[in-house]
Amino acid sequence: MSIVPRLRLLFARRPWLYWLLVWMCAAVVWFSVAGALADVTRERDSWGATRTVWVASGPVAAGELVGATASDYPLAMVPPSAVTSVPADVVAARSIGAGEVVVSADLAADGLIPADWVVFAVPADGSPTLLIGNEVSLFGSGQLWCDGLVATVSEAAVETAVPSGCAASISAQLALGAVTLARHP
User: Fold this and answer.
1) Residue 135 covered by a domain
2) Which CATH number goes with the domain that contains 75?
3) In order along the chain (185 residues), what is the average pLDDT of each group of 10 residues?
């Protein structure tokens, strides 16, 4: 006689053995799940202290309102300039990807321009059609100098904000009359 019919006969005559086997299987599964959850908790605790930062809910283009949600991240993963509280009507100074931690340079201080940026008036002749908040690249003397944001647009000039690190080179290119704007798509 093979083993399967013998086991069926054994379990039919002694149902307590069947239920004992069921409870043992359930206990094995429960201990496995509990162990896995304990491992996850132990790993999370090994990250150390966490900090609540704001993360972009979806993609945000420059000049749009920033939609963000609070999330806890380990301190090792948090950038030094991460934003810990987002005001209600804050505008993005540059593009922010979905799920990206929002840093202070991503937010416009008074409307659109980050606090540490410098604004230059670039002649509007020869520039593409621009709107406030457009991301642009500034070229001069045949090379790319830096990227910036359009602050205001008039018929004569386009006020363009650039990071303070490239302000000196843009100033020199403006003095030469060699600055050209290119709009990012």
Assistant:
1) yes
2) 3.90.1210
3) 85 89 96 96 83 88 80 86 76 82 76 72 77 80 83 78 83 79 76
- Rounded to the nearest 10°, the torsion over CA 68, 74, 75, 81 is -20
Domain boundary among 85, 106, 127: 106
Range of the domain at 56: 50-106
The DSSP H or E segment spanning 152 is strand 143-153
Task: Evaluate whether residue 96 is within a structural domain.
Answer: yes
What's the structural domain count of the chain?
3
Where do we find the tokens 């490239």? 166
3-state secondary structure 96-155: ECCCCECEHHHECCCCCCCCCEEEEEEECCCCCCCCCCCEEEEEECCEEEEEEEEEEECC
Please tell me the pTM assigned to this model. 0.45
Q: What are phi and psi of 100, to 5 degrees?
A: -85, 140
Q: Would you state the structure tokens that stand for residue 42, as one six-digit string?
A: 């132990």
pLDDT of the residue at 24: 96
List residues bridging with 147 in a β-sheet: 137
